[in-house]
Amino acid sequence: MQELIKALIKAKAEFNPIQKDGTNPHFKHKYATLDAVLDAVTPGLSKWLHSRNVTSPSELDSLQIDELIKTMCLAWAGNKFGHPNHAINSYQKQVIDAVLRGVSEMEAIQAWMEGALAQLPELN
Prior knowledge:
The protein has five helices and two strands, in the order αββαααα. The chain has 124 residues and is mostly helical. The protein has a two-stranded antiparallel ribbon with strand order 1-2.
C-alpha cells in the first residue's frame, strides 16, 4: 500500500492543475471539461508512457493499461478525499469490486467519480 501511495503522490506531481473551464447551465457549477483534463494530464501521461518505453497507450499490455487507468483516476481523486488512503480504498471497493461483479469498467469508474463529486461540500 505504501508503494501505491508513493506512486500516486509522484503521479499527481506530474499533472498540471486541472482548470474548471466549463459551467453547468442548470446548476451553475464550474466543472473541468475533457479538454481541460487532457491538457492537465498529457505531460504526465507522456512521461509515464516514456518510463515504460512506449509512446502510445496502444502499445501497453492489459495490466499496464489497468495501472494507467488507476493512476489517472487516483490522481484525479487527489483533492476529493481527505487522505490518499481514502481514495485508494474507495477505488478498490467501488471500482475494482464492481468490475469483478461484472459491471463494465467505464460504468464503475463513472459511478465512483460521481460519488466522489457528490460528497464535495461545494457541490452540495
